């Protein structure tokens, strides 16, 4: 029984972290895409931004895999204020 509780807690932590990570990636991805579209083709920063966009997409794919895994387990994170946890 104790092992099952530990797995449930671990899965809940993974799920919450994946959600937070996914939110941050959305901001990064949006900012990078906006920056790419605002630059003219051939701009020296454009290739770096395209590389950053690809990296953000790969990370989002990994976060999605974690979220799908925890969803299959029935784990859903609950938003709470820090004060309520302390």
Helix proportion range: over 70%
Structural class: mainly alpha
Spatial extent as radius of gyration: 18 Å
Q: Could you describe the largest sheet, including whether it forms a barrel?
A: none
Number of domains: 1
Poorly predicted runs are: none
Mean pLDDT: 80
The fraction of residues in strands falls at under 5%
Which word captures the global form?
rod-shaped
- The span between the termini is 27 Å
Task: Provide a count of the helices.
Answer: 3
Quick one: how many beta strands?
0
The string of secondary-structure elements, in order, is HHH
Notes on the protein architecture:
This protein has 86 residues and is mainly α. The chain has one domain. Helix content is 79%, strand content 0%. It contains three helices and no strands. It has helices spanning 2-38, 46-72, 82-85. The protein starts with a helix and ends with a helix. The model has no long low-confidence stretch (mean pLDDT 80).
